[in-house]
Each structure stands twice: as C-alpha cells, then as structure tokens.
Amino acid sequence: MLSSLDRKLLRDLRSLWGQAIAISLVIASGVATFVNSQNTLRSLESTRSAFYERSSFAEVFASVKRAPDSLKGRLAEIPGVARLETRIVEGVNLDLENVNEPVVGRLISVPDTRKPLLNKLYLRRGRWLTPGADDEVLASEKFADANQLQVGSEISAVINGRLKKLQVVGVVLSPEYVFQIKPGDLVPDAKHFGVLWMNHEALSQAFNMEGAFNDVSFELLHGTNVDEVIFRTDELLDPYGGSGAYGRKDQISHMILEGDINGLKTTGLIAPSIFLGVAAFLFNVVLTRMLSLQREQIAALKAFGYTNLDIAWHYMKLVLLITCVGSVVGTIGGTFLAGIVTELLARVYQYPEIFVSVRWSIVALAVTVASTAACGGAAGAIWRAVRIPPAEAMRPEPPANFKPTFFERLGIGHHLPNVARMVVRQLERQKIKTSISIFAISLSVAIIVVGQYIQDSIDFVIDSQYFRMQLFDVQVTTVEPLSTDLSYELANIPGVMQAEPMRTIPARVRNGSRYRRTAIRSLPTDVSLLQLIDRHLESWQPPPSGLIVSKKLATMLEAEVGDYLTIETLEGKRPTIRLPIVTILDDLAGLNVYMNLTELNRLMREGPRATGAYLRVDPNQAENVYNELKHTPQVAAVNVKQHSLNSFQDTVSKNLGTMKTINLTFAVIIALGVVYNGARITLSERSRELATLRVIGFTRQEISAILLGELGTITVLALPLGMGLGWCFAYFLSTFLADEEAFRFPFIIERSTYALAVSVVLTASLASSLLVRSKLDHLDLIAVLKSKE
C-alpha cells in the first residue's frame, strides 16, 4: 500500500517526466562509459594474464649470432632462472600466390619431439607439426586470415638463399605476438608480415645452425631481480655475438599492450566524471525549481506532522529513483558498448578469445558513484527547502531584486529591442543559474573536442611520418652488413629511381648507471629520402659527429645536450664508444639514436658498410622491382611504405570512427539534457509572465524569442568556454598519451574540430529549443493566469 508521500512522489515524477528522462540519460551516459571502460580494462588485463600464464610467456629474452647448445647449461645456472628454452629465429622473404608485393616472414623453431616449454602456441585450427618434417609450418592467425591461407595452403620462402615450398598445417596464436607488428611499423600489417613456426631440426639445417641456437627465453623464479639475470645473460652471450638481453617490459608486443592498458586507465575516468558532474548539476537545478514551486506543499506537510527528515527523504527518493533508472539503462548500454569495443580489440590483438563480461562489482561502484553525485547535487536544494519555517513557506517567494543591466548602465540599453532587453535582464538577474548553465553546456563542447583530438593527432602523425619524414617508397634490409656499394646495385634495378644506404646496429646506450637497449640508426650526411622530423615539423640532418637522440630516450637516461653517452655496440667487433648529444629530437615514435653513417663505420673499425637502403621507385615499374627484391638472397626484408600507411589508416580509422560516434552521441545527450532542462525550468518559472505578455498583445513569435533568446544566449556564451575546456582536457590527456615509448600522440587540435563541436552542440540546442517551443505554443493562458492566493 503506497503512502501519501509515495503517491505524491509518483505525481511529481509524472509532471517532470521529460526532465527526468533527460537527467536519466545523462546519468546513463556516465554509468555506461564507466562500466564499458572499466569492464574492458579488467577483461583486457585478465585475458592477457590468463593467456600469458597458460602459454608460459617468458620474462627475459636474448638474441645471439650463434651460440653452441652446450652453453644452455651455463645459462640455466644463472641465479633466479626457473627454466629456459633455446631456439632459432630467422627472417625470410615470403612469396604468396595472390600477393605481388614482398612479404616479410619470421621463422621460429619449435622442438621436434615435444611442444615448447615457454611461449607455448595455442592451436586455433589444423594440427601440430609432424616430427622430422622439413616442409611444414604453423602460421600466425592474423597472417593466415589476412592472406586467406587455409590449412593445406602452400607458401614459398627464400630460406638462406634457396626457394623452398612450405605447407601450412596449422594456424596458431602466440603470447609473443598478441600485437603482431613488423619492426619499423607503427601499426600491424598482417598481410605483409607473418610469423611461422617450423621444426627445429629442419630450420637448423636450412641455416647451418646444427648444434647451435640464436635465441633464448627465460622463465624466472618469483622475486628474481630481472636486471641481474639480464646482466649475467649478456656476460655469457657477448662472446658469441649477443645483441643484448631484455625483459618482458621491453618486448614489443607486451610494451604496446601495456601502453594501451595505461591509456584505458586514464581515458576511462575522464568522461564518466564529466557526465556525472552534469547530472549532479541538473538535479540541483531541477529540484531547486520544483521545491520553490512546492513551498506551500512543504509547509502543509509540516503542518500535518511530517518532520524535516521525512520530507527530505521523500525528495531524495525522487533523486534515487531517477538515478536508478539511469543506472539500469547505463549498465545495459555499457555492456553493449563493451561488446563493440571487444570487436575493435579483436581486429588488433591475437587472443584465443576476448570475453568482456559484466563485473557486478564495477556496476555497483558505478551506481554508487552516480548516486553519490546525484544526491550531492540535490542535497543543497533539498536542505534549503525543508529548513524554511512553515509560516514563511506559506508566503510566496519575495520578488526578485530588479536593477539596471550592464548595457543600461553603459547607456546603450535603449538601443536594444524590448525582447533583447528582457533577455539580458533575466540572465543578469540570475547570475549563478546562468553561469552554471553555461558551464554545463560547455562540457558537451569539451567532450567533442577531446574525442576529436585523437583524430587530429593521428592525422598529424600520418602527415609527419609518411609524407614528411619517409620520402622513400621502399626500405630494404639485408641479412648481413654489406658494402655501401649496395645502394648502387639497387639503383641499377629497373624502376628504382634513387637509392640511399643506411645502417642500423643494436646497442646499449648508457648515461652513468642508466641504460636502454635500442638501435643506432646511421644515415649519410646528404640523406634526402629520410628526414628527421620533430613534432614541430622542423627537419634535422645527421651531424658529422655526435648523436641526435629522441627526447623520450634522453629523459629516461636523464641526459641533456652536451652530455656524453656510452654506446656499447652489439654487432661486429662490438666496440664501446663515447659520443656527445648534439641534438635532442622531440619525435613521435620509438627510442631513436641517429648519427652519421661514415662516422659510425669508422668507430666500428670497419670499411663502408650498410645494412639496407631507402629506395624511391617508379610507380609504373613497382611490381618489377618487388619481384626482383623478393628473389635477391642478400635481402632479409622489404618494407613498402604504402602498405604500412594503408594498414595504419585502415586499423586506426575504423576504431576511431566507432569511438567518435560514441563520443558524439554522449555529447548530444549532455547538450539535450542541459538545454532541455534549462528551457523547461525557464518556461515553468516564467509561464505566468509570458502568458501575461500574450494577453497584452505580444505574439507567439515574440514570447518565443524571449524564452529561446535566453537559451540561445546561454548556448552561444558556452561555446568559447567549451572550446577552452576541451583544449584543457585534451592537453591533460596528451600528457599521458605523449609519454609512451613505442608511440606518442602529439597535442594537436585543428580548427575543424572546434567547428564540429560548435555545430553539434548548436544543433542539439536547436532541437531542445524546438521541443520547448511546441509547449509554449500550447500554453493555457487562463490556467496560468489564475491566482494562486
């Protein structure tokens, strides 16, 4: 049986149904974004942890030129090593039937008689390799799907200078390649980069590695010092050409996954905070007005014996009921969004499954936060209403304090039309309400700016990396360092218009006790096909001596211009050299160190050597160039810039397009919620005044202009503030996204972003105004003008 207060609650809710729906949608948006982001984050973390654990993902990795199998015993004796596994890893060129361009492959050996102990493979379809077979491979799933490879398909590979046919017998997933990316690329290109697993004996024979290995992975005991294991591993492998051990945190796939998770942790808290803050504001405004209209009812309730606490709880139940509806809708919406995000993740990551389940603890937290925000916003209005003595509450509110407006004090008020003066007076008379309304609408502008900032940043990266920095068409990498005459040989291939040599060597870069494992990239002094571009689009040339170092790397090493870095080279005679930092480059990707090619070869105590070249190719003869490079034994990898660009645009554009749609939807909800509630409140406050104006001769258009003029003025004033807030939010977000090792988003906001934000909010405000205008046109003049005394 409903109590009297509960029946009154339902009547109040029915009279406020439009505003209640608008507030519920704002709350639903906040809850949905929170449930989506936190569920996705937790699911991504748990999926990764479970896959790593089931697959026994290694914690330390090391590569070596050639080490004897007898060294395994000494490596296993390193304190803290639980178990290890050696293998052979080699890069090859692949020739696929339906792909004209070069395809880069990576062959990894697996034991013939057992499955790997570490970095175990998950068999998605097909079967395991036949022991002793030398023509069977397992293919990574992304590569197989991108090239429509089925179990039983054949691949041609150039193995150690010889063309060999390989049969795909299974499709697998690996914890090492959850994010499968080709070295030097910014995003995965599964069509042109694949990972294949082959029997160890067959691979060792093909590359003359019998009784030897060139790659080792370690699993460590709990609590082991990773840096100590890396140090001891390097001591043992250095005599055999070790290229430097590194921990899981520097493994490229894991590093990118970790960066994505950290990004979710940041972005998953900003949007819900905005939505719930707006909801708290709306509750405060709506209840303040409703309680103002119900002053006599509150007094009557007190006269019948209801306490202040009873009345406060009655109105708080209204708040909680609206919040409950919004939370339910938000939970359903958040779950739906989580499914969409799962599809986005599945396009990029290679997991057996990414199952985003609803974690009720997260839902409970979201509802608690939403309820707290709503109750906090309503508490002030409720407390001010219930604490008024009954005798005072029975009297109407005192009239507002009228005084000349700002324009009237300037002496220009009489130049304004009557309708405009009414609008200005109303806005100035309620400064606090006007200010809060402006701030709330500005938040919807800010959300669009923040959402579009990522797109602007990506567009900037595409322009700087692919059209200003990479002026070549093809990058060629060789198996071993060759003479710089390589560039002349490549230039003689029909269709190659220009070729420039380059050399990359692995190295440990030290500054005191701080060090990082990276690669030294050396370029000719007159290089033209690769420009060193910073985030301000300034171009730098390799200095005759000294180093150009990425700003991110310099920060990690606590180094500045003029400091000398110790370079421990991990190739050839492995000299250790000290060079000064000439320039710190504020670039966008990687931990780069650049120097002059001639100077590097001199310090390496070698003749003119190169490990590859940049090529500019005639588009009409590109296919002939690709065919020539695919069958050149000395070529280890061929990277076509256009493929990388296409993959970047395809992957990023699809994901960003979906996220932009979600952001726009939420921004529209905020704009509609704030403007519609503001318009309804203004209409209820001024209905008697507007009806009086209609009776004395004002037309519907004129009284509409008064009401909608106030809303329009508030919206217009909110636009510049919203753009400013959006700039601040985007800048705050960029401080997190611009600090990743693999990839850094620059802080770029285009004018078109502000234009989009303004147009969307104006459209939403116009729609809200039209809804209120329809109610204004049907205003019951007699009912409104009836005296309440």
From TrEMBL:
It is found in: Cell membrane. GO terms for biological process: lipoprotein localization to outer membrane. InterPro entries: ABC3_permease_C, Lipoprotein-release_system, MacB_PCD. Keywords: Cell membrane, Membrane, Transmembrane, Transmembrane helix. GO terms for cellular component: plasma membrane protein complex. Residues 270-390, 665-775 form the ABC3 transporter permease C-terminal domain. The keyword Glycoprotein does not apply. It is a multi-pass membrane protein. The chain crosses the membrane at residues 16-35, 269-287, 318-340, 360-386, 435-454, 664-683, 704-733, 753-772. Its main location: membrane. Residues 438-629 form the MacB-like periplasmic core domain. It comes from the Bacteria. Belongs to the ABC-4 integral membrane protein family. LolC/E subfamily. This is FtsX-like permease family protein. It comes from Aeoliella mucimassa. The lineage of its organism: Bacteria, Pseudomonadati, Planctomycetota, Planctomycetia, Pirellulales.
